[in-house]
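Need a sequence for this fold. Nothing fancy.
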């Protein structure tokens, strides 16, 4: 009798844990205007706290081979919330966003909401969007 009661209690705890699991989201990023120069598309997802961090700590991201025209990148297991995306086409696959000696970009880049930089990258407010539970899709055009 005790074994059955224990098994029943355990089943309730496990089912409750499954039901109480926080929802997750998937974000599909469609990257447009990808150059035929190749390389990788490097996508980073940021929350407000890490958007301008010195150590570049993002909330998730991916690196995928660049496909001329459009490259699709999918990020899974995201906690729903407010985020921003920064990305670039890493032509030489060195893992860095390359700049000229006078500070101009040598590689194509983009931000969520197709926000445009001025003398520095756009603000979090200009790039933020909501990730809801389930499937989400955004489109970013490389500049």
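Here you go.
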């Amino acid at each position: 009798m005790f074994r059955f009661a224990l098994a029943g209690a355990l089943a309730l705890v496990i089912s409750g844990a499954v039901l109480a699991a926080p929802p997750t989201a998937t974000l599909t990023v469609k990257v447009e205007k990808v150059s035929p120069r190749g390389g990788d598309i490097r996508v980073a997802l940021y929350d407000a706290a890490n958007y301008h961090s010195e150590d570049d700590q993002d909330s998730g991201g991916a690196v995928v081979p660049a496909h001329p025209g459009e490259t699709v990148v999918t990020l899974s297991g995201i906690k729903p919330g407010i985020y921003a995306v920064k990305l670039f086409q890493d032509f030489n696959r060195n893992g860095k966003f390359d700049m000229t000696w006078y500070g101009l970009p040598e590689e194509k880049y983009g931000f969520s909401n197709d926000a445009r930089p001025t003398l520095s990258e756009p603000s979090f407010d200009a790039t933020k969007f909501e990730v809801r539970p389930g499937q989400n899709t955004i489109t970013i055009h490389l500049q």
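For context: Residues 23-141 form a domain with the Immunoglobulin-like fold (CATH 2.60.40).
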